[in-house]
Design brief:
533 residues, Beta-Lactamase, Helix Hairpins, 5-stranded antiparallel sheet, 3-stranded antiparallel sheet, 8 strands, Methyl-accepting chemotaxis sensory transducer, transmembrane signaling receptor activity, signal
């Protein structure tokens, strides 16, 4: 929405609010005055109604179920309500007790509202408080301005009620007509105010519209910065036009200077971009070489570390071999000692076996003697048997003994032969055992000699393993030092690589910034070219 339209709308709103406030205040005051007039008119009507009743008489009472005023019977007699309507207008009713017995109030079916009861606040005021009621009340569903007075007999008892009233819609008909008239007048005044405001605002905003058109032409047209506003007014609009012209002068100067420097800025940006690109390329090459050196250093460090670990493992294995060789040397020495002991025991066993062979020979000699004795005994037994046979019966006992001796000699011969065979076998086996024992002794002596040589070899191996262990430790120490050195070199090269990368990134950023600066300079040149100086 344009400012002009807003200004007119605001003026119209202000006028409308002011007119609405004044109109509302007047209408409220008029409504209050109408209500006051309604109250006064009801008082006048009720007094007139009382005067009409007094013309009929002063003695009012209920006689035989009918309300009488002197000789005048009110029930079913509509003279007084109709007379009051002719004089003052409105409605009127006479109640006997709280029941309508005479009224000019017409029901929707056209009949008079006779026989209906009094209810609401009027009933409370008249019959419970014994006082008149003035105010609004509903009669047959319609709002009325009403006045109710109690009717008392000579004893002061309330025997009925006197009512007068007028419909609010009839009373406020003029008020509603006045509202329509006032609304029409307000609409006409508001329309005139809008027209006058539009005319005044148009004259007021004419310089602003001219300024708007000029700025729009500068923005969307040829961008002529030489155009100026020519308004010599002694008000805020004139000051605004003067300030606008000063602004255009400054803008003309600024754009002229910018147009002169953008070409230099673009050339400098191109030069900076070219230098930055060269620096970035060199930095990338240095970074690649540094990365290659760092990678080689890392590989060398890994190789040195592996060498150190392998040397340490070899040293550990050499120590284990040393321990095993030392253990083997001890075992060899123990073996030599055991073999010497076994050799001595075997020699002792050989001597024992040789002694056993000698004893077997001696036993063989003894067996030979026993065998000779058995042969001789057998021979003697034969001779004795022969002699016993010669002696006859006297020699039978001796013959029996001779037979027994001969049998014993034969068994002895057999036994000695078996023993001789066994001794011969024992001697043979003993000789074989002696030969085997001698061979075992020779082999034990040879094994002991070999064990001595093995012990010497193990001691030589121990000395060589100790030398290798020292060399492995020296190599591991050197490899660890080389690993530490190559790690330091790798870290340094990584740092150099990071620095070179940062430098390359910075130069790339500078090149990008120079490119952006060149683009901005070109954009600025194109923007400045839109203005006509």
């Amino acid at each position: 929405m344009k400012i002009k339209t807003r200004f007119i709308a605001v003026n119209a709103l202000i006028v409308a609010v002011a007119l609405a406030a004044v109109t509302a205040a007047c209408l409220v005051k008029f409504s209050q005055e109408l209500k006051r007039v309604a109250g006064v008119s009801q008082e006048a009507r009720i007094k007139t109604f009382w005067e009409l009743l007094k013309h009929k008489g002063n003695d009012i009472d209920i006689v035989e179920g009918r309300l009488k005023i002197g000789d005048y019977t009110v029930n079913g007699n509509f003279e007084l309500p109709d007379r009051l309507k002719e004089l003052c207008g409105g409605t009127a009713t006479i109640f006997m007790g709280d029941e309508r017995v005479s009224t000019n109030v017409i029901k929707p079916d056209g009949s008079r509202a006779v026989g209906t009861k009094l209810t609401g606040p009027a009933y409370e005021a008249v019959f419970k408080k014994g006082v008149p009621y003035r105010g609004e009340a509903e009669i047959l569903g319609a709002p009325y301005f009403t006045a109710y007075d109690p009717i008392r007999n000579a004893r002061g008892d309330i025997v009925g009620v006197l009512y007068v009233g007028v419909k609010k819609s009839e009373f406020f008909a003029a008020y509603h007509h006045l509202q329509m008239v006032v609304a029409s007048i307000v609409a006409v005044i508001l329309l005139l105010a809008c027209l006058i405001s539009a005319f005044a605002v148009s004259r007021l905003f004419n310089p602003l519209n001219r300024m708007h058109d000029l700025l729009k032409d500068i923005a969307e047209g040829e961008g002529d910065l030489t155009r100026r506003l020519d308004y010599r007014r002694q008000d805020e609009i004139g000051e605004m036009c003067t300030s606008f012209n000063l602004f255009m002068d400054k803008l003309y100067t600024i754009v002229s200077r910018v147009a002169g420097t953008t070409s230099q800025l673009a050339a400098a940006a191109l030069q900076v971009q070219g230098s930055s690109n060269q620096i970035a390329e060199g930095a990338d090459k240095v970074a690649q070489q540094s990365a290659t050196v760092a990678t080689a250093s890392e590989e060398m460090a890994l190789t040195s570390s592996e060498i150190a670990q392998n040397c340490l493992l070899a040293a550990d294995e050499a120590r284990q071999a040393t321990d095993s060789a030392q253990t083997g040397s001890v075992v060899v020495e123990q073996t030599i000692n055991k073999m010497n002991s076994v050799s001595e025991q075997v020699m002792a066993a050989a001597r024992t076996v040789e002694s056993l062979g000698q004893r077997s020979d001696e036993i063989g000699e003894i067996i030979g003697v026993i065998e000779d004795i058995a042969d001789q005994t057998n021979l003697l037994a034969l001779n004795a048997a022969v002699e016993a046979a010669r002696a006859g019966d006297q020699g039978r006992g001796f013959a029996v003994v001779a037979d027994e001796v001969r049998a014993l000699a034969e068994r002895t011969t057999k036994a000695t032969r078996r023993i001789a065979d066994m001794i011969a076998t024992i001697q043979k086996e003993t000789n074989a055992a002696v030969i085997s024992i001698k061979q075992g002794v020779e082999e034990v002596e040879a094994g002991a000699s070999e064990a001595h040589r093995s012990g010497d070899a193990l001691r030589d191996i121990l000395r060589q393993i100790d030398a290798l262990n020292r060399q492995f430790n020296q190599i591991a120490t050197a490899a660890e030092e080389q690993t530490s050195t190559t790690s330091e070199i790798s870290r340094s090269m990584h740092q150099i690589t990071d620095i070179v990368h940062d430098t390359a990134k910075g130069t790339q950023d500078a090149a990008a910034a120079a490119m952006q600066l060149n683009q901005l300079a070109q954009t600025l040149q194109s923007l400045v070219g839109q203005f006509r100086l």
